[in-house]
Amino acid sequence: MSSVPIVLKTEGLVKKFGGITATQDVNLSIAQGARHALIGPNGAGKTTLINLMTGVLEPTEGRITLEGMDITRMAPDQRVQRGLVRTFQINQLFASMTPLETLAMVVSQQQGLGGRWWQPLGANRKVVERCEQLLSLFRLTEVMNQRTEVLAYGKRRLLEMAIALACEPRVLLLDEPVAGVPAGEREELLHTVAALPADVSVMLIEHDMDLVFDFATRITVLVNGAVLTEGTPQEIANDPQVKSVYLGHSEELTHG
Amino acid sequence: MKAVQDSLLAPSRFKVWEPLLWLLAFAAPWVFPGHALIVNEIAIVALFALSLDLILGYAGVVSLGHAAFFGFGAYTAALFAKLVMPDPLAGLLVGMAGATVLGAVCSLTILRGSDLTRLMVTLGMALILLELANKLDWLTGGSDGLQGVVMGPVLGRFEFDLMGQTSAWYSLSVLLGLFVLARRWVHSPLGATLKALRDNPLRAMAIGINVQLRLAVVYTVAAGVAGAAGALLAQTSGFASLDVFALDRSADVMLMLVIGGVGWLYGGVLGAVVFKLLHDVISGITPQYWTFWIGLFLVVLVLVGRDRLRKPWSWFGKPKAHGESA
Q1: Residue B324 pLDDT
Q2: Which residues of chain A lie closer than 8 angstroms to B5, CB-CB?
Q3: Per-residue b/e over A200-227, b at no fewer than 16 CB within 10 Å?
Q4: Which pLDDT value is given to residue B235?
Q5: Are A199 and A168 in contact (CB under 8 A)?
Q6: CB contact under 8 A, B191 and A119
Q7: What is the Rg, in whole angstroms, of the alpha carbon atoms belonging to chain B?
Q8: Segment B119-146, tens digit of pLDDT
């Protein structure tokens, strides 16, 4: 375990909104290539934690490091350029653009061509190739020329993740990737989550326990903004504290 | 590979009708020499509308004070002709440069706040400049306007004539040149990132785009283009007056974009043509009340919708179901 380098680390992270403490002294380490799940009841502060990590919110106290570099006060877009990328629980897409345009734009930006104004969007061969890969990986090829706002919900959920992967993340934070996806379109999404590149470290926030126990090799439980416990899926499943505080219904854990 | 690339390149390719449209525009002052002046006016406001489309249609920045840059370009070009040299192209570049610098300074103010804040800030900016031009009468001529602007020939060869043919061709050429550049710009990776931050600034930031910087860049460039339009007006009319900063001008250009459609470079051009021709025709019939008819036209256009006006047969039958928004 100790030989695997830590890519993302929070130390003593605290976030207060007025009198309310949304994040209490969170120490979290994501190892390289990790499949790490963050679970906790509603209001546990999972999304706040993601917002702190990605720079949407600034912590009241504490430190965040990405591959050894202090990013606590770094602008969100610079964190992305350094490989810290997230998806959103509620789709955040570009409604008037097509999936292809969207991905070509993101890939161009990622490859440092985002400031070019004299070339058309498809002029760069590498960009086109990467778009093609992403479209087929996320099964978006048939709908690549439809406006995003008319796509089926499942497809939009896939695009949400494709955009994040197009940013070539080192650490990928997935905020409830299957939330609201109807059962029929779920398989496609789970398949792509499982097929994420092995060297990308993934932190998954999810309510779906089947997915968490299938996917994660390490689980952190967050309650009231603080880390309750952390361990392997086996340890978490057998932890009496977790059962009583978080899940309440012990039968949900037997899937692991 | 091929299909993907073709889909990406398709929007940037010229359509068959585009060269035809420009040929018609350039032929107009020659076929109807008596109407060269209005062709010139249309070309100038079309350029101004194009500039607003760059920020409103392609980056989602609402502005009610775009005349600030138009006016600044106009006064700069007029002063340059009067005080330095009468060459039109040099004056045009100076006018553009002046407006670009002003745009860069103003872009700092629009980066903060929401649409309403921006609306107010842009409006205030134009009012400040209007009052400055009014007060600095030793330089600008105050409310009398800046008179006695005499222009040299374009490229040292084409004298401005009373009919306005040279003016029309000069303005059309500048419009075409900047239009082609703008066309490149909106279909480029940069243009795509601007569309992205118009659609969803939160996500644009989450894919590594420096939203503030991009907004500042597009605002500055659009200001330069508006300055070019203003410079053309001052040069072809030989005059700059306070009304170049007026709120009406900012509002009119917004109306033109609404008429022609935002986020589509030809929208500004089309809107300018329709607006100016309507103005010309209606004010010929009823000089005092022409705004009534323009107003009525706008209300109908917005309530009925551009698509349905263009396709009256769709007024009957079931409305098409819209997809959920993403």
Answers
A1: 39
A2: 122, 128
A3: bbbbbbbebbebbbbbbebbbbbbebbb
A4: 93
A5: no
A6: no
A7: 20
A8: 888 889 899 999 999 998 888 887 888 8
* Domain A6-91+170-255, CATH: 3.40.50.300
Average pLDDT in chain B = 88
Which residues are bridge partners to A218 per DSSP? A36
Q: Please, which contacts does A74-79 make with residues 24 or more away whose CB atoms are closer than 8 Å?
A: A75/B210, A76/B205, A76/B206, A77/B205, A77/B208, A77/B209, A77/B210, A77/B211, A78/B208, A79/A54, A79/A55
Contacts A–B by Cβ distance under 8 A: 145
CB atoms within 10 A of CB B303: 8
C-alpha–C-alpha distance, residues B218 and B212, integer Å: 10
Domain boundaries, chain A: 6-91+170-255
Buried b (16+ CB within 10 A) or exposed e, A45-57: bbbbbbbbbbbeb
Residue type, A220: T
Q: Which of B180, B187, B199, B207 to mutate to test the interface with A (most CBs of A within 10 A)?
A: B207
Locate the chain A residue with the closest alpha carbon to B193. Answer: A105
B326 touches chain A (CB under 8 A): yes
